[in-house]
Amino acid sequence: MKVIIAEKPDQGATLASIFQTKKRQGYIEILPNDLFPDGAYMTWAIGHLFQLAPPERYRPEWKRWTLNTLPIVPERFEYEIEKAKAKQFQVIKELLRKPEVTEIIHAGDAGREGELIVRNVIRLSGVNKPIRRLWLSSLTPKAIAEGFRRLLDEQTTRPLYEEAYARACADWLVGMNASRVYSLLLKERGMNDVFSVGRVQTPTLALIVRREREIEQFRSEPFWEVIASFVIGDKRYEGKWTDENGQTRLKDEEMAKRIAAFCRGKRAEVADVRTERKTYQPPLLFNLSTLQATANKLYRFSPKKTLDVLQSLYQKGIVSYPRSDSMHVTRGEAETFPAILQKLSSFPAYASYFPLPRPSILQNKRYVNEKKVTDHYAIIPTEQVVDPEKLSADERNVYDLVVRRLIAAHHQAAVMDYTTVTTLVDGRARFVSKGRQVVDEGWRTVIRPHEEEKDAVLPPLERGEAGEAAAVKVKEGKTEPPKRYTEGELITLMKTAGTFLDDEELEKVLAKTEGLGTEATRAAIITMLKERKYIEVKNNLVYPTDKAKVLIEALGGTILASPEMTAKWEQRLSEIGEGTASPAAFMEQVKKLAQKVVADAIAAAPAWNFNGVDTASIQRTRTKKTIGEKLGPCPLCGGTVIDKGTLYGCDQYAKTKCSFTIAKRILGKSISAANVKKLLAKGKTNVIKGFKKGGKTFDAVLVWDENEKKLSFQFPKR
User: Fold this and answer.
1) pLDDT digits (tens, 9 = 90+) for 48-88
2) What is the residue range of the signal peptide feature (predicted)?
3) Residue 621: partners with Cβ closer than 8 Å, 6 or more residues away
4) Helix axes of 583-604 and 563-577: crossing angle, nearest 10 degrees
5) Residue 418 to residue 89: CA distance in whole angstroms
6) If I label 93, which of 183, 284, 311, 397 is the partner at 20 to 30 A Cα–Cα?
């Protein structure tokens, strides 16, 4: 007999769904079959069953937040069971200890966190039996069966566990010491709040605050441009006055007016026509970061929302593993594309793109490159295709993005001609016109790029043609400050450690980029910054709060605010995951950093200057007794839904990124804890009166839809 341990209950149910089974308490019994002649037990964690022990577990005096107890550096890290999950751990432990069980199959998510969660469960159960690893990039029945046939040796993925463990311990050490020392020192300056500091979240916050400072310090200046309308025969076009250095802006309004007056009605001659042809290859396939950035730009989805929707599509078996950092596939995946595309061609949304210009990309190294595939290949639709019209609106939008990327990869390059025309007025004044002409739309018929088409189409012009400057005007403008980041741009910034890349450059980001965080954690970091009142998002733009400005000012130029330095640490963690760096050596560095962080903060505190920031407003929110109250089991992951102050949510979010939340106000109505308890226990609330939408008021019951995994309204019968 074998015990299979999944990461979450729904994942366990999906993996067991291809077999005949009997449901038991806390596990599923798989009946004998070709893959498991003696049958098997399928059980699961509920995300992280264990958490790193708090400081007081090591020393009682470490419980109080005082400067003289810092730094906190345990000699050896310990885990403790989460009380709410002890029952499930007992189920797993009993299964593992059964005499007939001779092998364990690790079936956690195919990534670092999945590796850590299940290995911790096995290690802390005290059972020492052979382990093999199920490693999947999609959850179709075919992929699940194939995965069980090709189990990996557990040593193959052990370095990923060591990386995840080192990451967790490093984050604990840095976060625990830095958060305490800065909170205590800032409290001495009158700010009675918790200032959370983290190895990844803080340099990300520093990028946001740095941009805000640039905006605040920016001083707008007026400028003037001279625009001429030319008439040459029956051809008309516009040009912008340009000096010998290529500058179009004048700081002197009178000078601009004099140029306009001089040129008006004068002879104009085409002095030069230059055309440059550019070829644009279809974009690479999506990894998580590029998909999050694109969904934010097109639909204003937060990175977390995109990941949640993608996870839902993955659980349904219709897209591949969502937390991939690769934009390429192996030959094995490329061989499945013709069949996938054939199925997609039958849906009205995609039928017009077929037949494809390129029936296969198997030999195209731009997409098919084994060397550039890391733990997982790019995010692609699986052979279990669905009509996008049958998905929810959010799922349809994300699935459509993934599908169109694959279709576009089978199309020709787009070809553009960019023309620059130089026109001389009265032989002296130089005007430049820029235009673009589409030669071949290519893949752009499938994916319309979301940049603005700035260049107009110019008429065909030849050097020496002459006419007149029929009209000349002066246009006033002013310099604009740098733009605030969107949430999608933050994802890209984190991936590139603060170097901003536009859409055309995204594909140049190397697979080994020394970025902040990982594909799996970046969305959670941004969500964390919101929850900890460091940032606010308005109209998709990210604003830092006064609390954020205070923290980054206090940190100054320390390592914790440095995206570049933190990115190098991220690279070292990746090397541990690849088996080329020592976890022990890394942790020794982290311990030294924790000591340095404390010493540097205490030394710098007397010189802190917070002029221009409303420090008096930075005070801990008075918490009511209800915060932390347990309301019932989480319907998504089996965790516990608690009162979080501003909303009701799963207590496993920080560990498993479980997305279950209920707002405390929905359509103008307060949702009581009593109704949430009833919803979690029975699937529906009492009738709630007075919801408001579109100027109308209605009564409804809130219902948890088990199939759609979301809240919906149920209207009472009249």
Assistant:
1) 888 999 999 999 999 999 999 999 999 999 999 988 889 99
2) none
3) 645
4) 160
5) 64
6) 311
Tokens matching residue 114: 């999945």
**Catalytic one of 321, 377, 485, 534:** 321
Extents of the domains making up the chain: 2-150, 169-217+487-577+586-617, 222-281+414-478, 293-410, 629-714
**CA 191, CA 398: separation in Å to the nearest integer?**
42
Active site residue 350: no
Q: Which residues, listed in sequence order, are joined to residue 235 by a DSSP beta bridge?
A: 232
Q: Which residue has the tokens 């043609």?
A: 465
Please, what is the Cα angle at 582 between 577 and 588, to 5 degrees? 120
Give the residue carrying structure tokens 């089996």: 638
| Cβ count near 320 (within 10 Å) | 27
Of 2.70.20.10, 1.10.10.2910, 3.30.70.240, 3.30.420.10, which CATH number belongs to 222-281+414-478? 2.70.20.10
Per residue in 591-631, pLDDT (tens digit) is 999 999 999 999 999 999 988 787 877 887 655 566 788 88
- According to CATH, the superfamily of the domain at 169-217+487-577+586-617 is Topoisomerase I, domain 2 (1.10.460.10)
On the CB side of 394, CA atoms within 13 Å amount to 16
Q: Name every residue whose Cβ is closer than 8 Å to that of residue 534 and which is 6 or more positions away in sequence.
A: 201, 205, 544, 545, 547, 548, 551
- Residues in contact with 480: Cβ distance below 8 Å, sequence separation at least 6, in sequence order: 220
Q: Which residues pair with 701 in a beta bridge?
A: 687, 714
The predicted model scores a pTM of 0.78
For 1, 4, 25, 28, 310, the CA distances from 39, given in Å and listed in that order, are 6, 11, 17, 11, 32
Structure tokens at 22: 């009997």
Fold of the CATH domain 293-410: Topoisomerase I; domain 4 (1.10.290)
